[in-house]
């Protein structure tokens, strides 16, 4: 697997995000200092085009990740 996909795989797996939510993430959605990823939108494919839409969940959600030294994972 190419190294550039590492963060994508980790966020998808441990963040329990849908594929459409992961591919719609933007840099402004990630806050490394707080350890959070905000899910604001998801890409929806309709008639061959992918458009960003609000995520299926009610409103935004923030997924909190433990600090790197945390033994929770």
TrEMBL record:
InterPro entries named in the record: DNA_brk_join_enz, Integrase-like_cat_sf
Compositionally biased spans, kind Basic and acidic residues: 47-67
Keywords: DNA recombination
Keyword Cell membrane set for record: no
Keyword Nucleotide-binding tagged: no
Superkingdom of this protein's organism: Bacteria
PROSITE patterns (alphabetical): PROKAR_LIPOPROTEIN
Segments for region (Disordered): 47-73
Record's protein name: Tyr recombinase domain-containing protein
Species of origin: Salinispora arenicola
